[in-house]
Structure formats: structure tokens, C-alpha cells
């Protein structure tokens, strides 16, 4: 087959106001990281899709509530403190860093980074919280 190939697909979107904020975690099993409840009905196939704020910034992924009038978003903030072993640029290769460290040194930009609060739980686990204040 020559030339471009046409792909038929359907794109779904849902939107709604944030109704609940879980700065530490929603629960132990379903959403053990920072999350937000949203008054939005999500459809099958939307789970794992991007969740954006009103300015178009990617803030998390659709996690649960598919088919319900209320959905939950797992927020990305814990990922910015996950240890990384970059392969490029060579300056950082093998140095062991995180997205937060890269942002603080000017290699990338993360808006509202100061609202992300890493802390150590009683069991020694590093946890992440976000400021619940708008």
C-alpha cells in the first residue's frame, strides 16, 4: 500500500471540577499516592489517559471511577522524586538524579515544584505530598 494510511479512532474527553484532594494518598491499595477526585464521568478505555489542569498542564493519569459520575486522578508528583540514571546528556550519565533535581539545576521545568513536599514516613519510606492550597 502506497501513500498515507487513514486511521479511524474515537477520542473521548471528560471534564469536571476537583471535588476532593488527597495530598498524601487516597487509600492503601487503589491510590496509595497523591490523588484528586473529579466530578467527571470517564468511559472505558480512558483509564491511564492523561489528566490535565485548566491551563493544559499534564498533572496525572485517570485512575479509577470509569463509568461513574465521580472519577479519580493519580497525580504525577511522586514521579519527580523517583531516582533516575540518565544516559544523556553525557554530563549527567550515571549520576543518579531525579526530575526535581534536574529542574532545580535548570535542565527541565516543573511548575509549582515548591508545592511538592517529600518526607520520610515512620517506616522509613520516602513519601510525597502536595500543597492542598490553591
Observed structural traits:
single chain, 134 residues, mainly beta, five-stranded antiparallel sheet, two-stranded antiparallel ribbon, globular
Radius of gyration: 18 Å
Following the backbone from N to C, one meets helices and strands in this order, namely: EEEEEHEE
Shape designation:
globular
Quickly count the helices. 1
What structural class is derived from the secondary structure elements?
Answer: mainly beta
| Strand residue percentage | 25-35%
- Low-confidence residue ranges: none
> In total, how many domains does the architecture comprise?
2
Helix percent reads under 10%
Total beta strand runs? 7
Q: Strand sequence of the main sheet, in spatial order? A: 1-2-5-4-3
Describe the sheet with the most strands. Answer: 5 strands, antiparallel
- Mean pLDDT metric: 81
How many angstroms does the end-to-end distance come to?
A: 53 Å
Describe the structure.
This protein is mainly beta and about 130 residues long. It is about 5% helix and about 25% strand. It contains one helix and seven strands.
Amino acid at each position: 500500500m502506497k501513500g498515507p494510511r487513514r486511521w479511524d479512532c474515537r477520542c473521548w474527553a471528560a471534564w469536571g471540577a476537583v471535588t476532593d484532594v488527597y495530598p498524601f494518598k487516597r487509600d492503601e491499595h487503589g491510590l496509595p499516592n497523591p490523588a484528586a477526585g473529579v466530578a467527571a464521568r470517564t468511559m472505558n478505555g480512558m483509564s491511564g489517559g492523561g489528566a490535565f489542569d485548566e491551563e493544559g498542564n499534564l498533572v496525572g493519569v485517570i485512575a479509577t471511577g470509569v463509568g461513574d459520575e465521580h472519577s479519580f486522578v493519580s497525580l504525577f508528583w511522586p514521579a519527580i522524586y523517583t531516582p533516575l540514571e540518565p544516559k544523556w546528556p553525557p554530563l549527567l550519565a550515571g549520576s543518579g538524579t531525579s526530575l526535581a533535581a534536574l529542574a532545580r539545576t535548570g535542565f527541565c521545568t516543573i511548575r509549582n515544584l515548591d508545592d511538592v513536599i517529600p518526607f520520610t514516613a515512620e517506616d522509613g519510606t520516602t513519601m510525597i505530598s502536595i500543597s492542598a492550597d490553591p
